[in-house]
Amino acid sequence: MHRTHNCGELRPEHVNQKVTLSGWVQRKRDKGGMIWIDLRDRYGITQLAFDESKTDAEVLKRIEKIGREYVIKATGTVIERYSKNNNIPTGEIEVFPDEIIILSQSETPPFTIEDESDGSDELRMKYRYLDIRRNPVREALMLRHKIAQETRKYLDTFDFVEVETPNLIKSTPEGARDFVVPSRMHPGSFYALPQSPQTFKQLLMLGGMDKYFQIVKCYRDEDLRADRQPEFTQIDCEMAFVEQDDIMKTFEGLMKHLFNQVKNIKIETPFKRMTWHDAMDKYGSDKPDIRFDMEIHELTSLVQNQGFKVFDMVEYVGGICAKKAASYTRKQLDELTKFVQKPQIGAKGLVYVKCNEDGSFKSSVDKFFDAEALKKWADAFNAEPGDLLLLLAGDKRKTQEQLCELRLEMGNQLDLRKPGTFAPLWIVDFPLLEWDEETQRFYAMHHPFTSAKTEDNGFFDTDPGKIRANAYDMVINGVELGGGSIRIHNREDQARMFKLLGFTTEEAESQFGFLMNAFRYGVPPHGGIAFGFDRVCALFGGSDSIRDYIAFPKNNAGRDVMIDAPAPIANTQLSELELKLNLKPKH
Questions:
Q1: Minimal CA–CA distance to 257: which of 145, 144, 152?
Q2: How many other C-beta atoms are found inside a 10 Å radius of the C-beta of residue 452?
Q3: Which of 78, 216, 382, 393 has CB 3.0 to 4.6 Å from 14, enough for a Cys bridge?
Q4: How far apart are CA 220 and CA 196, in angstroms?
């Protein structure tokens, strides 16, 4: 037996018991006459104590060889610790070993395996198997495990059935780029890795499964950032014989259950709902953080035609009111201007108005607008003395997005985005379609299987851009955790949707013929939702990056630096696949 207890288990009630522990050496301290070793495993740390005057000479020789991250086995007696450590659960005891066995030696690790490591992100990813030994990473993976288990418990209670769907499927043109897999048995043909199990879960509803879920790997070949990985995980769900409210109620319940069971936090249901248009107009985002106010207000008609070209020559002028921020210095305001001018935000400049405590106004446009005009601006914001108005101008949608970034920055600076506070809401009534100027065609905002609001059906032939979707996103603290829709379940409606998206009849048949054929055989009304499981874990763990909650993540270039993937394959493999590489030289 390599251990009778784990390294986080022993307490004062175990004193005088003979135990065996195994684990990694966190650190060794030699104080002359006494040696201590902190032994670590997944469960915690136990201190081993050696009195050189009482410890066997052979054991002392072994201890001399032991370094950090050696794997050892220690057998000895639990004793009460003289100098107690209240920072760890085992801090009232220590083990006095009479036997030490070195199970495995270790070279000096490339970084310190401590909560606060000296290793860079890239270095820790290269040695991820060592990084996992650190408490923050281990705790993140344990949190992920807990959320997965509680998800399964909740959905099982509501009669959902977990069904696996294929990983080798057919490539489709909608959405992000597919990862493709060449077929040896069918030269010149390729599988795609699924971006989601969308069509399969619809077919499961057609097959009568009624309630499906899967915690499933998905794949998208797209540019990466903190909340994206080329392979990611979804909590994927579908229900038959339901309407939008049925799905929203069910998955509000799931999130309430997770917060209660995982974080011991009670959140109220039903969640607030907001239309997509209201979210864009008030927050400049379809995933607003509503933990704080500071809504966007449009001032276009109020500020134009006053001789200020910056306002007169644009489509839209809007702003936010930062409460009690009129004390901002010129330097702070200059920093805000630099912030909105960052290339990723793209504003040309920033106009400010200070609503002074004495009722006067100080602005960056005093030459063009008098105190009476500035008071009208303040009234439009319901601003009070001590508040700060911040205005941007330009194209409407772009300016609203810039104001969203400025609002979030002010929320951070004014400490309004409180950690540990959670404000959930649903965004509903999305546009069904998005127009792309470059290709001069509509694209599905979600996917081509999303149904339209019945009352908007008349717009299909007259003004497709006005059609609203039976779609909904769950947003918490500015993070889109999940989204879904009520699906099209009528063959004719699906064909009309494909036509509107620019598919010829032949293209629709080639890409989705299996689904259209299935629609011949009785399709129940159905809909579903998919949560970004990695994002849920990051939200619960208080992190902006999903990478912290993935056991073996890729870096920002999509590379696994630990196993060095992607990598070239042998010419023999290419020959088996009947493939030739045509690599273009890099410039």
A1: 152
A2: 22
A3: 78
A4: 9
537 and 448, same domain (yes or no)? yes
Do residues 269 and 346 both lie within one domain?
no
Q: Does 347 have pLDDT greater than 80? A: yes
Do 439 and 544 fall within a single domain? yes
Q: Specify whether 427 is located in the same domain as 563.
A: yes
In terms of Cβ atoms closer than 10 Å to its own Cβ (0-12, 13-18, 19+), residue 453 is: middle
In single-letter form, the type of residue at position 231 comes to E
Residue 255 is part of which domain span?
141-274+423-572
Q: Which residue has the tokens 């299996």?
A: 514
Tens digits of per-residue pLDDT, 481-511?
999 999 999 999 999 998 888 888 888 888 8
| Alpha-carbon gap, residue 140 to 143, rounded angstroms | 5
The verdict on 90 and 211 lying in the same domain is no
Span 234-287, pLDDT tens digits: 999 999 999 999 999 999 999 999 999 999 999 999 999 999 999 999 999 999
Please give the structure tokens belonging to residue 132: 């996992």
Residue 325 covered by a domain: yes
Tokens of 236: 């994927």
Cβ atoms 72, 97 nearer than 8 A: no
Nearest to 58 by CA among 110, 3, 101, 103: 101
pLDDT digits (tens, 9 = 90+) for 294-333: 999 999 999 999 889 999 999 999 999 999 999 999 999 9
Tell whether the model's pLDDT for residue 587 goes beyond 80: no
Q: At what angle do helices 244-263 and 135-157 cross, to 10 degrees?
A: 140
For residue 536, the one-letter residue type is V
